[in-house]
Write a structure and sequence with these properties.
The protein is an all-alpha fold. The chain has three domains: 1-67, no CATH class; 72-119 and 273-358 and 379-423, no CATH class; 125-269, no CATH class. It has helices at residues 2-19, 21-34, 49-63, 74-91, 96-119, 123-151, 168-188, 192-211, 215-231, 235-252, 255-262, 271-289, 301-307, 320-354, 361-379, 389-422. The N and C termini lie far apart (61 Å).
Amino acid sequence: MRDIIVTLLVLGSLPFILRNAYIGVYVWSWLSYMNPHRLAWGFAYNMPFAQIVALVLFIAFFFSNEKQKLPGNSVIFVWVVFIIWMAVASFNAEYPEAAQEMYFKILKVQVMTFITMVLITDEKKLNQLIWVIVCSIGFFSVKGGVFTLLTGGAFRVYGPPSSNISENNALAVAVLMIIPLMIYLYHISKNKWVRYVFIFSIVMSLIAVLGSQSRGALVAILGVGGFFWLKTKTKLISGLAIVFLASLLFAFMPQSWHERMESISTYQEDNSAMQRINSWQYSINVANDRITGGGLQSWSKDMFAVYAPNPDWVFVAHSIYFSVLADHGWPGLIMFLLIIWLTWRSLSKMIKETKDDQDSSFNLLARMLQVSLVAYMTGGMFLSLSYFDLPWHLIAIVMLLPQMVKKRKELSLEVTTENMNTH
């Protein structure tokens, strides 16, 4: 039954995508983040729904009249150069065929992200996209939070099977990235019942993060909590609320959870931690020896035998920074960090420009996007999510904000002019 429902939903959306290309961005995002076909266990499980939607979206995109120019700024420039550099690194990789195959998978995501910036042309469409992202990942965070409560936190929370966030650590960071967006949607929603649902969803999502039993997520949640407190205007109330909620959640978690979190301070005795450090040193050694890095999919016994301190521990970096470093060398890492820094600077500028606006929704969104970036940058220290769709999608949203603010000001000026002419 699930297979039929998912198939009908996807195929039923195609005519709407052909008519309005931007709907394809919503459907593709839903498929990418929620992976609804992975929740079915029949013929739909391995159906290439995302590819079908992408193909129809491309057709609709070329015939669509509702398009805008790609934002022209330093972020986009470095972003494009980074994509080109990834191609160069892939063609000079230790295993070129495997690297190029992986590169084209990453390129598909990047192209779809750029299409998003062209098709999401107004504030309404932007908010609808945020709704899709939040609901897609929020489905697993709310379900995971309820599961954690019902089981007393004895089991780990996982994401959609065969996805970028299937494992507990990756899901936890993705959830931390969407909680600020939940807060944004809560504030702009006028229906009180929708707001109640968001309060419930935020609490359940926080519980799900703890229920993931991810040590990296604990570091991220501390970073997010601290930065969120700095960004709130009511620091006393929000600070007390954060401390109370944290104490309540920590007290609820079982002893096994506390023991796992306490192992952070004794990482020298933890094989998992030492294996990651071994992979990080491998990444540095590869980048020092090869300007383009080892290339994608180069984490092998042969490469570790040459570059790793312990050649028997062959594991991926479990870090967005060290994975980019090993895959694309020092130039690749510098560009990756530059994109994040320039995005952050753009958000800071937006916050400053809109702080006195009567309608502060853009100001709030910019502040919450910064919190999401903090979640990614801190949680990403211990996860290989460098090429995951969500952070790139959030950067695309950041790129759209200046255009949205400009359009709102122009609309406001038109309304003011009309009123003056009327009187």
